[in-house]
Amino acid sequence: MRVPHPLAFFWRKRGETERTLLLIVLTLTAVAYVATLQFQFVYDDEAQIVGNQLIEHWRFVPHYFNIQVWAHINTHQAGNYYRPIFMIWMRLNQAAFGYHPFGWHLTSVLMHVLATFFVYKLARRLSKREEVGLLTALIFGLHPVHVEAVAWVSGVTEALFAILLISSFLWFLDWREGRPNARAYSLLLFALAIFSKETAVLMMPLVFVYAWLYPRDENAPLIKRSWTSLLPALPYLAVTCAYLYFRALALHGLFHPITPIDRVTNLLTIPSVLWFYLKLLFVPIGLSAFYDTPYVHSTDLHQFWLPLLGVVVFAAVIFLWWWKTRDRLVVFASALLVLPLLPLMNFTVFFQGEIAHDRYLYIPSIGFALLVALALARVPNPLAFFWRKGGVTDTETTQTLKQLVIVVPLTLILLSLTIYESLFWANNLVLYNRGVEIAPNNNLALNNFANELERRHMYGQAITVYEKVLSRNPNFYLSNYNLGYVLYEDGQWKQASYFLRRAAVLDPTDAGTFYYLAKCQMQLGQLDLAEQDLHMAIATDPRLLGPRYTLGVLLRQQGRNKEALDWFRAELNKNPRDADAQRAVEQLAEK
Asked: Which DSSP symbol is given to 51?
C-alpha cells in the first residue's frame, strides 16, 4: 500500500516550501536572542561605546580611517584593531539610539539573523541542495558559540564583516558564471569587509581554494591549474595590500606584540587552542567570556600531545570522508573552517588570558555547520526499516521523516542551549561571576569581577579579589591599578599610592594612573609629588578630563592663584560643562 505524502501539495511548490522553511529558521534565530534586548552594556561596551567621544559626532568619521579602535582610550598605546567600518557602524547606532542598550542589542540580533540568511545563500549555492542550505543556516543561526558575538554589543563586528565577506564571495561566484560587473561588486564588498575586521584577509586564499577545487578545465596540468586558480585571487590581493598600507599608517605598523612569547611556546600552544575550539563547536556548553587557556611550555601529555592527537584525528576523519566521497565541498568547507583560525595562532598579539574567545569561531563555524549539514544529509533514514515493512516506497515521505527525526531534536537542543548561555551576558556582575566560575585561574576574569564589585561600592570584597590576583602575579598591571583606585575610593590613601606607583612603573602610558596617584598624594600632603604626577598625567594623555582642574586646586592651596586660574581655564577649554572649574574661575577672577 502506498501512503500519500502529507506535504505533497507543498513539495509540489518546492520554492514556496523552501522560503517558508528559511523564514522559520530565521525566526528561530531571532527568538533565540530575544532576551538579549533587555540586556545592559557589558564587558568592553562601556569603554568602547559609552565612553567613546569619537562616535558622538559625524565630524570624527574621516578620522576613523587613520586611528585604531581604542584610540579614544589611550593615544600612546599601540593597537592591533584597525576597523573603520565597524566604527562607522557604532556611529550610526549612536546617532539612532544614543546610549540606550535596547537599540544596540536589536541591531546586533538583526545583523546575526541577516548573517544567517547569507550563510543559507552560500551553502545553498555551493551545494545546490535546499536541505543542505537550510540545515547549514539552522546550525549556524542557533549554535550557542555565537552568544558572545550577538549578546555582547561590541561583538557585532563578527556579523558585520561576515555579511560583507559572504556577499563578496557570492558576487565572485556570479563573476565565475559570466556576470560581467560581478567582480567589481565583489571587490567593493571585500574592501568593506576587510576594513570592518582584519580576519577578512582570508578572502584571497578562499578564492584560490575554490578556483583550485572547481577549475574551468578539469584536465589542466598542475602548474597551469595552480596559475589559473591564482589569477582570480590577485585582485583581492591588491585590495588586501591597500588595506595593509592604510593599516600600517594608522597603527604605525601592521601589528604590535602585546604579550612577549617565544616562538617555541607559541607553537606548543597551538594544538591546545585548536582542540579547545573544536570542542566548543561540537559541545557548546560552559561558555564564557573568559577561559583557562594557558601557554604551553613543554610537550606535556595533557596540554600538548592529547590535544594534538584530537586535532589529527579530526583532520583524518575529514580526509577519509573526502577520500570515500570525493566531494569537493567537504574540502572547501574544511578550508572555511580552518583558514580564519590561522591568523589567531599568533598569540603575541593577545593579552595574557585572552588567547581564545567564542567570537573567533563566528566565520569558522560556517565551515563547521556546512560539514555537519553535509554529514546529516547522508545519514540513512532511521525509520526506513519500518517504512519498508509497511510497504511505503515514497522516497519524499521517508526523506521528510528522516529530516524531521534529525532536525527537530537538533533545533530544540541548540535553541535551548543558546537561550541559556545568553543569560550570562545580562549584566557585568553575572558575566564576570560566570567567568570566574568557568576560568578560576584566569586573572583577567578575576580582575574584571573585582571591578564590578567596586562599581557597586562593595569595596571590601573587591579588595580581597584584587589581592588574590596579585598573590598570583604581583606584576599584573590592571590589578595594581584597580586595587590602588579602590583603596583611594575607600580613603586608604597611603596603601592606594603604593599600588598606583607600582602600576605607573608597570605601564607608564596610562594617564589615569598618574592622576589618581596625584590625588592620593594631595590627601597625604605630598604636594610637590602630586604636582609632578599631575603634569605627567596631562602630558601622557592631553584629552583626559580632570587633571587640569585638580592641578588648579593644588596651586590654589599653595597661594599660586594666577597659575591656578590658568589651569582652571584650561580645564574649561577641555570640558566647558565642568561646573566646578567654572566656579573656580569666577572666584579667582574676582580677586
From this structure: T
Residue 35 in grid coordinates: 532576551
Helix residue ranges, H only, 284-363? 306-325, 328-338
Report field, pTM of the whole predicted structure over 0.85: yes
Where among 359, 392, 423 does a domain terminate? 423
Residues 492 and 385 in one domain: no
- The tens digit of pLDDT for each residue in 39-79 reads 999 998 988 898 788 888 899 999 999 888 888 776 556 67
Note down the domain range covering 87.
Answer: 8-423
Q: Position 166: which residue type?
A: I
Instruction: Let me know whether 140 and 95 are in one domain.
Output: yes
pLDDT digits (tens, 9 = 90+) for 467-503: 999 999 899 888 999 999 999 988 899 999 999 999 9
Q: What is the pLDDT of residue 399?
A: 60
- The number of helices, as runs of H, and strands, as runs of E, in the chain is 28, 0
Question: CA quadruple 212, 213, 215, 220: dihedral positive or negative?
Answer: positive
DSSP string, 409-436: HHHHHHHHHHHHHHGGGSSHHHHHHHHH
What is the domain-level CATH number for residue 544? 1.25.40.10
Q: Is the per-residue pLDDT at 225 higher than 90?
A: no
Distances (CA, A) of 113 to 31, 164, 383: 10, 14, 33
